[in-house]
Design goal:
Blueprint (H helix, E strand, L loop, with lengths): L1 E6 L3 E8 L2 E4 L12 E2 L1 E5 L4 E3 H11 L7 E13 L6 E12 L4 E5 L1 H4 L7 E4 L2 E4 H20 L5 E6 L7 H17 L4 E6 H5 L1 H6 L4 E8 L4 E8 L6 E8 L3 H12 L17 H5 L4 H4 L5 H10 L5 H12 L3 H14 L5 E8 L2 E8 H7 L1 H18 L8 E5 L6 H11 L4 E3 L5 H16 L2
Length: about 450
């Protein structure tokens, strides 16, 4: 049995194409869309794995609000080689690291985005090292198992989606695909194929289009933004004219919303000696994963000094945020507000937990100003995609939008102004790609018999 599998930055899904129909499965009962598995992993001290909404629930139950305790731990020895005129000098040195000894587990998010970084090979989780492909395999294995449970048959073949590019560097891009392939094998798949996600998104439209026409697929997810110009319909196979990708996703937009919130946590404050708070501390607030690092001893002394500076209330909020491990909850609230702004003119960011109280209104125009440089980046990328295709904007007959971030109004306006609002087609933001992958998988399954 062959299936389509969409491993996404924020959500993942699996689907089967049989007898002309796409079949999706219940993957995450605790999610808003139970046919999507949120791409979270929680690993506890017993090295038990939880995925999706259950991973988030475990983290919020066991980790949010608890105090953080850092200790220096000896990790082992590392061999050092130093060059010299008389030949290399080799010696062993002790390796130490600060460890949060109070941690009950670890929540891992946006693994797909980590594939952009060639230096990222894996991570230590409470004393056990996981390679990146092992982490990805946890999610793929869960998807495969739930598909098998629903169908009574274990899928052996899979068509996996991938962005047009993980990185501008070809070696990094190839490495990223190889890591996902290795993860799929660890998960139990035997025959593994890949398809560009925007091409998969166009498969259903292609099947329903009687006349041959050029289209643009605008696939804007949590980690990447991909464009594809292709000819579809007319009973002939799709033909790709150009593909282009931008390393921009919904997670990057969340970080922009965090910018004005920094004023609640000490931005612009001065220390007791009237020197400004070090700027890199504010930079660490742009990700919930790095926020907690501000609770380390090397920063607590700075914050203690800042408490006697110009804005003690903001510094106290910052200390509560990082010492009570509230960063994830804050970014969940930021994401909720961002999604709301796609349908309403304003959204409140409300945070009242473990002694931290924050309430701030963000408007859609304010959000659009925060992401202006990203909108310009997208506009330039659209022009480049058209240039590579050899077509003008007025020759594109339909623009297919897919992915959660494709619902943001400023990007819809950008597409409408460039191609014509009457040519925009909204696809299911989370299920179109996996459906196309399933169709492709069905074709491969038939050809293999």
């Amino acid at each position: 049995m062959y299936v389509g599998l969409d491993f996404g930055t924020s959500n993942s899904s699996i689907a089967l194409y049989q007898e002309g129909k796409i079949r999706l499965f219940e993957l995450d009962p605790g999610s808003i869309n139970p046919r999507m598995l949120r791409s979270f992993i929680f690993v506890n001290r017993a090295q038990e794995h939880f995925t999706g909404s259950e991973a988030v629930r475990q983290y919020q139950t066991l980790e949010t609000g608890r105090p953080v305790f850092w200790e220096m731990r000896h990790l082992g020895e590392v061999q050092m080689v130093v060059g010299g005129g008389g030949g290399p000098i080799i010696y062993w040195d002790d390796l130490f690291a600060q460890v949060d000894t109070a941690a009950n587990g670890r929540l891992i998010q946006s693994i797909k985005t980590a594939l952009r970084n060639p230096a990222y090979k894996g991570t230590d989780v409470l004393g056990k090292y996981y390679q990146v492909e092992e982490l990805i395999a946890i999610i793929l294995r869960d998807l495969r198992a739930k598909c098998a449970q629903a169908t009574g048959e274990e899928p052996t073949g899979v068509v996996l989606g991938r962005p047009v590019k993980f990185s501008d560097e070809p070696e990094t891009d190839a490495r990223a695909q190889a890591k996902i392939e290795a993860a799929a094998r660890l998960a139990g798949f035997e025959d593994i194929h890949f398809e560009y996600e925007p091409i998969a998104a166009a498969y259903v439209f292609h099947q329903q289009t009687a006349e041959r026409q050029p289209i643009l697929v605008f696939d804007f997810g949590g980690g990447t933004l991909d464009f594809t110009v292709m000819e579809v319909g007319g009973g002939e196979p799709p033909r790709v004219l150009s593909t282009f990708g931008v390393l921009l996703g919904g997670d990057d937009l969340d970080r922009e919303i965090m910018q004005p919130l920094k004023r609640f946590f000490g931005e612009g404050a001065t220390l007791r000696n009237r020197m400004p708070l070090p700027a890199h501390l504010m930079g660490m607030l742009e990700s919930w994963q790095t926020m907690v690092l501000l609770s380390r001893p090397e920063y607590t002394s700075i914050l203690r000094d800042a408490r006697r500076g110009s804005d003690p209330d903001s510094i106290q909020r910052l200390e509560t945020l990082v010492n009570k491990n509230l960063g994830f909850s804050l970014f969940q609230e930021i994401e909720r507000a961002k999604i709301k702004l796609s349908h309403e003119a304003t959204a409140w960011i409300n945070m009242e937990k473990e002694g931290l109280a924050l309430r701030d209104l963000i408007t859609r125009p304010q959000f659009e100003r925060l992401i202006t440089h990203h909108v310009e980046q997208v506009n330039a990328a659209l022009d480049e995609t058209l240039r590579l295709s050899g077509l003008r904007a007025d020759q594109i007959q339909a623009v297919l939008r897919t992915g959660g971030s494709s619902e943001i109004p400023v990007f819809i306006r950008l597409l409408g102004d460039k191609f014509g609002h009457d040519r925009l087609r909204e696809l299911s933001p989370f299920e179109t790609i996996v459906g196309g992958l399933a169709i492709r998988a069905g074709e491969l399954g038939l050809s293999s018999h």
